[in-house]
Amino acid sequence: MIKYSIRKNGIVTNSWTSDFADQNYYEPSFGKPERLVPQDEPHELADVLEEVDVVVSPEVAAVMNDAGEIVQEAIPAVLKKHVKLRAEYTIEIVDVSAEHALAQCIASRKAEYPSPEEFMNAYFDGGPEALGVLMGKRLEIKAKYPKPGV
C-alpha cells in the first residue's frame, strides 16, 4: 500500500493506493519545493523566505576586432539578487505496506480471540484448566495470523 501526502499552503491531504505495491519505481518525494528565482521575476511577497545573492558564472562572448578577426572576450562574473521562495506544494510517497499488513493481522486476531466475558468466566469459574484452554486458543490464533516480517 502506498500513501501519498500532498502538502499545499500548509494543508496536508493524504490518499492511499495499492497500484504501485508490486512495482519498485516511485519517487519518494517530488513537487515544487523551495526554489531560487531572480528577484525581478513575479512572485508573492508572502512566499519569500530570504533574499540571496547568486553568482552568475562568467560567459565568453565572441567579438570582432579591428582587423576583422573573431576573438573571444571573457565577461566577468556578476552577483544577481535572487529570492528563495517557499514550497508551493510537495508530494511525499511512502510505502506503508508493512503497517497495513500489521493492522490487518491485529484485526484478524482480535476478531477470533476469546471475548473478555469468556476470560472472566474462565478465570473466576473455570480455574486453571479453563485458563489453559483459553491460552491454547490464543496461541493457535497467533500461529494462524503471524505478525508480518516475523
Topology of this protein?
Layout: E1 2-8, E2 11-17, E3 29-32, E4 35-38, E5 48-56, E6 59-64, E7 70-75, E8 78-85, E9 89-95, H1 97-112, H2 116-144
Question: What can you tell me about this protein's structure?
Answer:
- With 150 residues, the chain is α+β, with helices and mostly antiparallel strands.
- It has three domains: 1-33 and 87-95, no CATH class; 34-86, no CATH class; 97-150.
- The chain is built from two helices and nine strands; from the N terminus they run E-E-E-E-E-E-E-E-E-H-H.
- The strands form three sheets. The protein has a four-stranded antiparallel beta sheet with strand order 2-1-9-3, with no helix packed on it. The protein has a three-stranded antiparallel beta sheet with strand order 4-8-5, with no helix packed on it. Strands 6-7 form a two-stranded antiparallel ribbon.
- Strand 6 (59-64) and strand 7 (70-75) form a beta hairpin.
- Mean pLDDT is 78; it is low at 20-26.
